[in-house]
Amino acid sequence: xxxxxxREFESxxxxxxxxxxxRGENYILDRRADAYHQWCxxxxxxxxxxxxxxxxxxxxxxxxxALSGAIERFTAALHPAKLEKSSYFERAVKDRRFTGHDFxxxxxxxxxxxxxxxxxxxxxxxLRSLLPxxxxxxxxxxxxxxxxFALSVDYVHDSVPCLxxxxxxxxxxxxxxxxxxxxxxxxxWRFRFPQTAREKPPPGSxxxxxxxxxxxxxxxxxxxxxxxxxxxxxxxxxxxxxxxAEGDVEPAGTTTIxxxxxxxxxxxDGFDNTVSIPAVFLRFLKEIEGIDxxxxxxxxxxxxxxxxxxxxxxxxxxxxxxPPPGESTADHGDRLPRxxxxxxxxxxxxxxxxxxxxxxxxxxxxxxSTPYKYYAAWIADGQPxx
Length: 386
Prior knowledge:
This protein is 43% helix and 23% strand. By secondary structure, it is α+β, with helices and mostly antiparallel strands.
């Protein structure tokens, strides 16, 4: 009670005493005791409020203790600073097909948008596994994604022998995680959480204070292609793949339609569609050294590689003996077509008795191991041209 209320209560007691002296045990019927009865009711309600508040405070302390412990364990599972995402991916994923080339531009925008929903759901599930769901409302998070792609290649016959290129996307999810204070009600009382104890609270101030919004750390995870789905890119004729890998600007049997900074568009004899070769993919073909390199890192499977090698041998033999369109073999003897791939020129040199280490082979500008691969293929193909 405050002083004013105490004086009112004291006056009501005197009134009740007068009533008792006048009417005995029936004093409650005396009007002089009305104020006293009102104060008794008010005091009872205040006592129940204090008991209710004490019970709510006890529940709030238990809840805050559990919440603080959960946040502490959750924070320990996070990274205190940002990681270099490519290094994290290389530690987390062992996939030989990863070549370090950025193929994100090959993915359609609608696929990327679909991946956003998968990303958010996956991150949310992971965070809930680290922090009990009843405390999730006190955590705020925002994920960012970075793509890493592994190529997968199969053999197909699409009007002409082709390789079918697909992309297996990995997503490296980097999530910023923040502590977000919030309210919770116990009984009729509302509390702000989480609270932390003050080491030296100022006189008259609460023993605890509400924590402010703060960064807890960073969470990282890799979402695998199994969750995202393989993306078919396109079919590319074998003649074009082989020629570009060997360094030909316009391989035999192809016609350049358009050249830009981003890539080149080709028309391939016998193939129904034009083929767009982005600059990043051309770099990949050259750096991986074509079909053999794809096989060595598992991009192209053994069976598909065997069929591809067989078809390339047949194509190489045909190019080694076929004259340009509209002209007969007699006009050219055993000369190769005007538009010759480096492999066809290598076959021609082998048929003339040159070896892989001959000066004539070096003039072709091949990678140092490629002449030996071509020589083995020439032997396997039956030494065409002899």
